[in-house]
Amino acid sequence: MPVPTLGRTVLYRLSKQDATDINRRRKDFEHSAGHADRTGFIGHRGNPALEGQLCAATVVRAFNSDSNAVNLQVALDGNDVLWATSRTEGETPGQWAWPEVK
What's the whole-model pTM score? Predict the structure, then answer.
């Protein structure tokens, strides 16, 4: 199996905690008072995140370990990203996998 390296694209499966955190940030922005006239920050907006949802992710740090642990910038269905740290390769929520080659 290939070794994850900086800049590679992988698939990340959102965990329940990931989805909860993403949806909370998006809801907090929508309900914050006066967000329409404020500048200097980015509001988190997007479609609801779901546990088990597959997302494209870029490897931003690879650790030299048997578990292929990496840090990822996960592209979400919105204007925000998720920084997923120390994630391992696998098929369960909270893990990453190589995309299928067709």
Answer: 0.85
